[in-house]
Amino acid sequence: MTFIKGRQIMDAALMASECVDSRLKGAEAGVMCKLDIEKAYDHVNLRFLLNTLSQMGFGEKWLKWIDFCIKTVKFSVLVNGEPVVFFGSERGLRQGDPLSPFLFILAMEGFDSMMRIA
Questions:
Q1: For the segment 66-113, what is each residue's pLDDT rounded down to a tens digit?
Q2: HEC string of the chain?
Q3: Which is it for strands 82-88 and 74-79: parallel, antiparallel or unpaired?
Q4: C-alpha distances in angstroms, 52 versus 34, 57, 106?
Q5: Residue 103 burial (CB < 10 Å; 0-12/13-18/19+)?
Q6: What are phi and psi for residue 65, nearest 5 degrees?
Q7: pTM value?
Q8: Where are the domains of the chain?
Q9: How many helices (H) and strands (E) does the chain have?
């Protein structure tokens, strides 16, 4: 869980406790996994994302477009209000990019599929 307006700080811990309790009382075997996805956008692997999208049926044109959108971004640092050097992104998805949340969700769908197979 993440911060959600109107929820208490202990809600996530209570929900996790309820999930564990429910799993222990159930007769069906299963696995529980808690992920800490801090800085999640920064750690999305582009090759994994593109492979996941390909497996989902995205065409070559879409894959090239998404690859282009992620790889061609340039950043700059302002010194005294002026940009000094432009540099490319080394990894992950950009914070604030309207496309990033959707791409992250699709990457997590690929991860979910891998976990279900494992």
A1: 999 988 888 888 999 998 888 888 788 988 889 999 999 999 999 989
A2: CCCCCCCCCCHHHHHHHHHHHHHHHCCCCCCCCCCCCCCCHHHCCHHHHHHHHHHCCCCHHHHHHHHHHHHCCEEEEEECCEEEEEEECCCCCCCCCCCHHHHHHHHHHHHHHHHHHC
A3: antiparallel
A4: 22, 9, 8
A5: buried
A6: -65, -45
A7: 0.70
A8: 38-117
A9: 4, 2
Half-sphere exposure of 58 (CA within 13 A, CB side): 16
Q: Strand, coil or helix: what is 86?
A: strand
- Residue with structure tokens 């309820």? 18
Structure tokens at 117: 């197979």
| Identity of the amino acid at 48 | F
